[in-house]
Design brief:
Chain lengths: 165, 165
DNA sequence: GTAATAACCTACTTAAATGCTCGGACTAAT
DNA sequence: ATTAGTCCGAGCATTTAAGTAGGTTATTAC
């Protein structure tokens, strides 16, 4: 079992998509900036998310990614799974052949733990996260910062335009 | 978060000690044989278990390891923790400074998950495991095999003794 | 049609951890 | 004195995460 930034990034990015749903395709550059995740790394993660048909893409200018299903139909477990971070706690993948063909002493314990984790993460959808207060707070902060940055760079280019006149 | 054979080995080995409690010190060689874990690797794991005072050791012939506390006072979480396999799912160690100083979008989600896992593993003691049917079954199988092996090697040495006569 | 944008793809790099092995030193019972 | 055991450090092969770099293709806007 393993849960690193890989799975956390994937969930964060998907949640970012869910939060900005209805605003058209969201570019990875935007997500990268808002969530502080390397753009190239995001590309690799979204390749997997796309292969698992959790997102759909639009190429070209104004393009980006969108959720491929309803928010409430995408669970955290699915996202973590899509980027190959199994929350399976057994070493044998539940086969029970952990100790050269036979069941090891603690096999069932890890099975129980796997069930526990999986049902927990399976029970949480992106829609559930979007309405949480702690998520909303962080999202608001990020959006303010992001839009003000957009404003600043827009102002910059206006000034640059003036300068070139 | 990470749970690999390292933590699983540690719990398995501790459970082995719990199962053979009252039989004096248990050598790592015995555990290695019964549980199919490399002896040298066990040594490294038990160094950590000892440093966390989960076991006490007896050196010299007839020596080995014993639980340092009552079976019911040692939880699976403690054992996993002792070998440095944190079941902490956040990247920031609950600090909330995940995204360059500020809280990331999914921080609270991973906190919840950590709580879930921790309370689950914390609620299971070695005593709980010892009485489980699935554990008993495997333990019986291992003990039969182990004692018959001891018998065989004993017979071997008897025969060897006879041969040398 | 040309430039810009953004998805898409492949390959490489760095760092860390796992799961071992090996060799030896210390300690205590026979 | 020998032997059975714990103790300790170094080293090693493999895997993975996480990120870099460099490019190609599709689409829009000018």
């Amino acid at each position: 079992m393993r849960l690193t930034t890989k799975g956390r990034y994937a969930v964060t990015a998907m949640l970012d998509l869910a939060l900005h749903e209805g605003q058209g395709p969201i570019s990875l550059a935007d997500i990268s900036e808002r969530q502080g995740i390397s753009l190239s790394y995001l590309e690799q993660l979204f390749a997997k998310l796309r292969r698992n048909s959790l997102v759909k893409s639009v190429r070209g200018p104004g393009g980006g990614y969108q959720l491929n299903h309803e928010k409430q139909a995408i669970s955290v477990a699915q996202v973590v799974d899509a980027v190959n971070e199994s929350v399976e706690a057994t070493g044998c993948g539940r086969q029970g052949d952990c100790q050269n063909g036979e069941t090891c002493l603690t096999h069932h314990l890890w099975c129980d733990l796997s069930n526990q984790i999986h049902s927990f993460l399976n029970g949480i959808s992106l829609a559930d996260l979007v309405v949480r207060k702690d998520v909303k707070d962080v999202a608001d902060r990020q959006d303010r910062r992001h839009s003000s940055q957009v404003f600043l760079t827009a102002t910059d280019s206006l000034l640059a335009d003036k300068a070139t006149v």
